[in-house]
Amino acid sequence: MKTYADFTDAELVVLIKNKDHAAFTEIYNRYSVLMFYKVNQMLRDEEVSKDLIQDLFVGLWDKSALIQENNNLSGYLYIGARNRVLKFIQRNKLQNDHLTALAVYASELSMETIQDIDERELKLIVQREIDNLPPKMKLIFEMSRKDDLSHAEIAEKLGLSDQTVKKQVNNALKILRTKLSAYAPLGLIILELSKKG
């Protein structure tokens, strides 16, 4: 059975135009951490970056009817994020050399550069931290998230109690939230790691 994680960006855009919450969550999962990372690289201010990314995704949901279905979604989101950075710089009259040069650079970015942005970077960051989990915890976590198995199903397959599986999954989430907090606000991480479907 096809899950939201299997849908292309274009298919998800069609669904969020019809206000499909699960499709929006999948887009958020794919791109929120990456967009935060890009914005924070520009601003070097985690709190402001978090706010701008939250605003970006609220805007995506509120104005989903305006998105063209054949748009490059990562490019669309990057342009939205970049525009929020530029408006923030203007609004706060931050005129130091770094931000001024950055604003010029961001304004001149070509579509080719934008099209290079995709979920690969996000997935690499998350997968690296999953790979660093203790082996048993990693196995249980991946069975839960990637194989979409219930705690009971995992417990049966591994000969463990439901409670042990639940504890391992919760411990994995705690570790991953801590490790990934450098890349994104807690809310983004919770969504990124939340069970699909």
Explain this structure to me?
- The chain is mainly alpha-helical.
- It has 2 domains: 1-117; 119-197, Winged helix-like DNA-binding domain superfamily/Winged helix DNA-binding domain (Arc Repressor Mutant, subunit A, Orthogonal Bundle).
- It contains 11 helices and no strands.
- It has helices spanning 9-17, 21-43, 46-62, 73-91, 97-107, 111-115, 119-131, 135-145, 151-158, 162-180, 186-193.
- Helix 1 crosses helix 2 (21-43) and helix 3 packs across helix 4.
- The longest helix has 23 residues, at 21-43.
- Mean pLDDT is 78; it is low at 110-115.
Tell me the layout of helices and strands.
Blueprint: H1 9-17, H2 21-43, H3 46-62, H4 73-91, H5 97-107, H6 111-115, H7 119-131, H8 135-145, H9 151-158, H10 162-180, H11 186-193
Helix pairs in contact: 1-2, 2-3, 2-4, 2-7, 2-11, 3-4, 4-5, 7-10, 8-10, 9-10, 10-11
In brief, what are we looking at here?
The protein has 197 residues and is mainly α. It has helices at residues 9-17, 21-43, 46-62, 73-91, 97-107, 111-115, 119-131, 135-145, 151-158, 162-180, 186-193. The protein folds into two domains: 1-117; 119-197, Winged helix-like DNA-binding domain superfamily/Winged helix DNA-binding domain (Arc Repressor Mutant, subunit A).
